[in-house]
Amino acid sequence: MDVRFAIVTCSSTRSYEEDTAGAALEERIRANGWTPLGRVVVPDDRARIGDAIIEAAAEGADIVLTCGGSGLSQADVTPEATADVCERNVPGIAEAMRATSLKVTGRAMLSRAVCMQRGSTLVVNLPGSLKAATECFDAVYEQFEHAVQMTAGGGH
Question: pTM to 2 decimals?
Fold first, then answer.
């Protein structure tokens, strides 16, 4: 099954070329035989992050992966931006990422990452660092095809 992904890196300090987490996620998407539709870097700005999620969903992304902006800094607004433009919470994915990350570091409990649906698009907040983003992706990616099937109206 093909799954179409968009990657939105949320950072006011990182350029597209410096976005190692987004690039690594793009590689993992391709390695699973899925389609990366695009990767952008937007500043830590609630409206701009929300606009990037809306645009990715409108362009046909089944899943939007955000990288960064889910910590405790005042600049970290990715969960709020996600909630602004999505309708339904999917808490199990974020819970699974935190549970897996807690085995690596106690700081995982400080993550405010969310997972939500915007129409038929799943939006998953990942950490911004290369190591944490790939660990979290690896913790949940096996459920993505089923999630896309269910979102499209498929049965269990």
Answer: 0.97
